[in-house]
Every structure is written in structure tokens, then in C-alpha cells.
Backbone:
């Protein structure tokens, strides 16, 4: 039987814009969406679980994954490595399931080179001041890391032009709804429906 490949959805945007919160709310509401768990060398934050939030790795382990070509993309971000395990993503879309990657912008651009047919969604803060507020209130960053993250965020905001969609995260529920409508519309693109239709036409009545 013909199986249409799943959608590869990339949710990206500056640090502190709320990608994590929006993505976990989306996962709760949309159980048919598979989530790609990244590998990182960053130490776990309180409450984070290995294999659920991230696969926590040493720098040596991560560098070995790069050498073995196990990562679909990877980036060094604020002094740590982050990367997407390749096989899980490829298997998921081959099985016809839709997968979402929540990654920063350098990595998103690398995915775009490999999967130009992916759906690239840029999550935006309502303003730069609001972004700074959110990073401060999360309270997990040192002053030095906050400055680095704000500088990175300004550069990251300029990357929006490479994306297919821009979603403002003014309220989590609204942002989630906007992303759900993007996914719904993308599932209905005629290019995805056409192969089924052509198959029907071949079948005898
Ligand atoms: P955090 O340390 O706050 O969890 O993540 C820092 C940044 O790394 C966030 O922007 C997050 O989206 C991004 N990130 C998480 N996983 C990956 C990944 O696999 N690849 C890339 N390129 N970025 C990631």
C-alpha cells in the first residue's frame, strides 16, 4: 500500500521565546505528532529527564555522534552542543508519521538544506523587551549567559526570512492554535493528496 511520507516540522526561534512551552503544549493537544528528542552536552536543569527532554551526553560522546554521522544537524549554542538524532527522524517520516523538531536557528537552516520540503515555523516574541523578561523570569541563566542569550536572540531574529511561517507567541494557547492550523493546512496540500487520488483512478470500479 502507498504510504505518504510524514511531515517534517521545524519549530525554531530565539532562545527564551517560549519554544519549549509552546512545543510541550502542542504535544499534549496533538498526540499524532511525534517529538524529536535532541542530544545535548548542556547539564540537565531541575526536573529534566534523560531521554525525555534531551539525551544528555559528554562532549566526547557528542563528538563521536558527529563523527558517526548520527546527527541530522547539530549546532554549538552558548558553549554547548545540541543535535538531532538522524535515524529517529528518518524512520518516523518513512512510517508516514509527522515529526516536530524544536531547535535553534542555525540547526533549522541545516535541516532546510537536507529537507527543503520541511515546514519551517519561526516563533517570534511580541517584542525584544518581552523576550528579555522571559529569559530573566525563567531564572535558570547566569548574568553572563543572559547577555550571551540576548545577543544570540537579536541575531536569530534576523533569520526569520528563511522560514515559511512566522508565529507570534503572545499567548501560549494562541500560538499553539496557530501552529495547529499550519499543520492542518500543510496536511491538506494537494501535492500530498494527489498520489492517493492517482491510485484511486487506477483502481477498477
Ligand atoms: P536550552 O538549553 O534552553 O534547552 O536550549 C537552547 C537552544 O537549543 C534552544 O533554542 C533550543 O531550541 C535549541 N536546541 C534544542 N535541541 C536542539 C537540537 O537538537 N539542535 C539544535 N540546533 N538546537 C537545539
Residues:
Amino acid at each position: 500500500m502507498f504510504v505518504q511520507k510524514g511531515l517534517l516540522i521545524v519549530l525554531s526561534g530565539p532562545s527564551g521565546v517560549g519554544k519549549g512551552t509552546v512545543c510541550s503544549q502542542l504535544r499534549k493537544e496533538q498526540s499524532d505528532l511525534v517529538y524529536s528528542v535532541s542530544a545535548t552536552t548542556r547539564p540537565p536543569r531541575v526536573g529534566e529527564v534523560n531521554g525525555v527532554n534531551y539525551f544528555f551526553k559528554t562532549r566526547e560522546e557528542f563528538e563521536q555522534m558527529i563523527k558517526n554521522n548520527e546527527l541530522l544537524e547539530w549546532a554549538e549554542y552558548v558553549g554547548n552542543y545540541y543535535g538531532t538524532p538522524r535515524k529517529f527522524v528518518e524512520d518516523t517520516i518513512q512510517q508516514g508519521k509527522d515529526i516536530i523538531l524544536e531547535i535553534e536557528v542555525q540547526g533549522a537552516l541545516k535541516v532546510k538544506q537536507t529537507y527543503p520540503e520541511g515546514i519551517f515555523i519561526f516563533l517570534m516574541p511580541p517584542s525584544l523587551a518581552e523576550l528579555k523578561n522571559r529569559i530573566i523570569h525563567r531564572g535558570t541563566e547566569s548574568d553572563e549567559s543572559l547577555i550571551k542569550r540576548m545577543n544570540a536572540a537579536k541575531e536569530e531574529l534576523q533569520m526569520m526570512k528563511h522560514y515559511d511561517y512566522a508565529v507570534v507567541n503572545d499567548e501560549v494557547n494562541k500560538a499553539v492554535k496557530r501552529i495547529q492550523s499550519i499543520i492542518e493546512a500543510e496536511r491538506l496540500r494537494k501535492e500530498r493528496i494527489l498520489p492517493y487520488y492517482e491510485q484511486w483512478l487506477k483502481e477498477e470500479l
The first strand starts at residue 8 and ends at 12. The beta strands are 8-12, 33-35, 38-40, 54-56, 71-77, 80-85, 98-102, 119-124, 165-168. The chain has a mean pLDDT of 92. The two ends are 18 Å apart (CA to CA).
